[in-house]
Amino acid sequence: MNQAVTRATFDQVMVQTYQPAGFIPVRGAGSRVWDQDGREFIDFAGGIAVNALGHCHPELQAALAEQAGKLWHISNVFTNEPALRLASKLTELTFADRAFFCNSGAEANEAALKLARKYARDHFGAEKNRIVACDNSFHGRTLFTVSVGGQPKYNQDFAPLPEAIAHAPYNDIEALERLVDAHTCAVILEPVQGEGGVLAADPAFLLRARELCDRHGALLIFDEVQTGVGRTGSLYAYMQTDVVPDILTSAKSLGGGFPIGAMLTRDAIAASFTPGSHGTTYGGNPLACAVALRVLEIVSRPEVLAGIQDRHGRLVAGLSALGDKYGLFKEIRGKGLLLGCELQGKQAGAARVVLHAAEAEGLMLLQAGPNVVRLAPSLLIEHQDIEEGLSRLDRALAHIA
Length: 401
Description:
The structure is a single chain. The protein has 2 domains: about 5-55 and about 300-400, Alpha-Beta Complex (Aspartate Aminotransferase, domain 1), CATH 3.90.1150; about 70-300, Aspartate Aminotransferase, domain 2 (3-Layer(aba) Sandwich), CATH 3.40.640.10. The strands form 4 sheets. A 7-stranded mixed β-sheet has the order 4-12-11-10-7-5-6, sandwiched between helices. The chain has a 4-stranded mixed β-sheet with strand order 1-2-3-15. The longest helix is centred in the C-terminal third of the chain and has 25 residues, at about 300-325. The termini are far apart. By secondary structure, it is of the alpha/beta class. α11 (about 300-325) packs parallel to α13 (about 385-400) and α12 (about 350-360) crosses α13 (about 385-400). The protein is about 40% helix and about 20% strand. It comes from Paludibacterium purpuratum. It holds the Pfam family Aminotran_3. Keywords: Amino-acid biosynthesis, Aminotransferase, Arginine biosynthesis, Cytoplasm, Pyridoxal phosphate, Transferase.
């Protein structure tokens, strides 16, 4: 018999690194979720941009069940067919020649940053080791990635931190020009800052980063953990720009809910990782790769990518109408189905209040900092679920406006 658990159980037995909502989801289908009491929620959160195809997509269920009947884990002492098929598909669809699989976005960024330093050491010497990132960025929770991320609140309690890391204000070209020099081994950027407030990069900023990296022999890393696999309306966000990175990291939507991360790069750069340079026990396991391959096949369908832009338009129109009605939103920004509503007036800094009010109305939302309400729903969210979710948000805002 299963042990009965409630939200209070979390406070009794879990390490308190999170403050989860007051209900426990137990079942999901598409963009709807039900809790222990059978209460229904519209999911505009998408598992923080993870559930790209919603909950319990039948094709993902089939892929997982099929692989679960064959092989779960074999380790990287051996290779496996799903990993090879996924790597082949990713390199077919992107600029990359090579893929490295891991379990999360943080691990993918850790691998990218280590590879950048190793590549620079191999080709230029040990003194070329500085990493340039952006203020307010987020690249993961390992000690290396939390140091590269430009949010002191996430690293200030864990000193001493890794060194030779500098930060420029996001979209500040002059600041970037001052920081990138002969000692820079890599520049790492998010095409859209997710945790930093859903801020899109200026195309000129990305282009200048590419030019500076080329001039100084540095690698350009795009962190597409949150923007990748259809989230912004193209398979990867770099495809909407004139800039191609040297290394790209992917996770979240890649597995559609099953944990997996990937680092993608070209042959010449990948050559700096030789056997023993880096590794992972679970990375590239057959279950994760089988599911991710099916996600990639579905998201890359033209009709799916076109549908993201249609859903973007519907959501932005509805959010804009609510913003006008209540005067709570200073700006609605983002790309595709990664959207942020910046609060203003008396509700400035009160994103969590909006989340609680939405929860009471049966709507799941996110925040990106204290002042931005974030939405990252399924790329396949039904039109009626968009309308119902907006209706529930309308009722929530009415309570707090």
